[in-house]
Amino acid sequence: MTDERRLVKVSKYLAKHLRHQPERIGIELDARGWVEVDALLAAAAAHGFPISPEELEQVVAGNDKRRYAIEDGRIRASQGHSVPVELDLPVAEPPAFLYHGTVAGNVAAIRAEGLRPMGRHHVHLSPDRETATRVGSRRGRPVVLAVDAAAMHAAGHEFHLSANGVWLVGHVPPSFIRFPG
């Protein structure tokens, strides 16, 4: 059994190279974000970060956020890419409300512009307040915003549901956001 600190390092390494900088280790993601597992493991080893197949399997299977998927000898990140990929996720009808965790320093910009994807392809929304609170707390004291997803959907905004339960949308205009207080 690999220790937890090592698995966290492997997970962060995968996120960096499967979501943001595959070229840094010489791998190329296909149009849908997939790369052969063998190619990933060989590239990681060649760049000084060897990952065993067992470690890879532990990270993929044990990640509570299901950040990665393995199919047919290939691996990809479930969402969160800053490199161009088409995850080919079906359009889905969202629940009435979804949630977004942020910090107080971002609220003024969100009030003015809404939620934007920033360096990613989509805005990420959580299905419940607890998850949004955890997401927001990664950058400080969390502020949880409620998004009127039903009204957005009725207005023609497309939502997608990733394999790990994160809801994705291109932009959330301020008029659909309920701010605390």
Automatic annotation (TrEMBL):
Gene3D superfamilies: 3.20.170.30, RNA 2'-phosphotransferase, Tpt1/KptA family, N-terminal domain. Pfam families: PTS_2-RNA (PF01885). SUPFAM superfamilies: ADP-ribosylation. Its EC number is 2.7.1.-. One of its GO terms (molecular function) is NAD+ poly-ADP-ribosyltransferase activity. Coiled coil: none annotated. The keyword DNA repair does not apply. One of its GO terms (biological process) is tRNA splicing, via endonucleolytic cleavage and ligation. It comes from the Bacteria. Keywords: NAD, Transferase. It is an enzyme of class 2 (transferase). Belongs to the KptA/TPT1 family. Removes the 2'-phosphate from RNA via an intermediate in which the phosphate is ADP-ribosylated by NAD followed by a presumed transesterification to release the RNA and generate ADP-ribose 1''-2''-cyclic phosphate (APPR>P). May function as an ADP-ribosylase. PANTHER family: PUTATIVE PHOSPHOTRANSFERASE, TRNA 2'-PHOSPHOTRANSFERASE 1. This is Probable RNA 2'-phosphotransferase.
